[in-house]
Amino acid sequence: MAPTAPLDPADGRWLAHRYVEDRDRLRFRWFPREQHRKITFLSDEEVGAGPSHDMARAEFVALAANSARPAPAMILHSAFCCSTLLLRSLDLPGLSSGYSEPAILNDVAGLTLRRADGRQVAATMDAALHALARPLAPGERTVVKPSNVVNALAPLMLALRPEMRLLLLHARLPAFVGSIARKEIEGRLWVRELFWKLTRLGLVARFGLSEEELFRLTDLQVAALSWLAQHALFADLAEKFPDNVRTLESSRLMDRPAAALGALGMHFGLDLDAEAIARGPAFTSHSKDGRAFDAAARAAEEDRGAALHARELEIVLRWAERMADHAGIRLTLPQPLLP
Description:
This protein is α/β, with parallel strands linked by helices.
């Protein structure tokens, strides 16, 4: 239930949910921790309808600039790589607040997709970062997992917050393409929408494909190029910002959760009890539906999907390796979180 008190822009329980572009205002919704834990993503569908309060973006930034809050830590991901699981494991009352795919960052990405003025994009991102730095309880640090369409805005985030720490989380190429195949028409529609956005953001140009060649791609070729485009972006970020960025492949997270969490705590500046978190519900239940699910169950699910689509996957993965060689994309990222 919403509080009876008016909007307190310093209180992170007032979620900065959306950017209202035509009025240059932020829209806030009362959304305390117990609400966060009931949903998977901070989307319109899952946040739902309810009372909201708007505040002028410039007014909010002027108030937030005096708070001296640390920048949020960011988990950027290429999808289907345990990012929701990891974010849930880092929502720790008294220590850290986790924000899963906040819609306000999608609004900033939307400005970029519509080729808005760069100054407006930067000003809106600055406001969003101020908003996402507000924890759900006093004394906590915030950890944010944006949707993967926000990945291309990482250089802007680092320009605005040079101290920000990022983890770049990804699955292996076969696992990503296999996930799309396993999710059938829903996965194939989703990855085509992602591919259009990556093309619009300029991340596909490096492959040198004509408009006709792009149109002729199969669904799983689109999936493979989407992964390669994001992987190339991650490699560029890791090389350009070695102090800010660490990379992690999802199977290593699942195989060595305590080691990964210990290293991530040091990178993010969080005093984590890595062993306890690794034994907890985040790593023993499905992050989206709550059923019992662990590394072995995840691997078995991947194997079943790979067997069902074996021939198509084999052809596409061989083609993707040739495309990676052509575009000069290394399949192993620098700056690994775990040696």
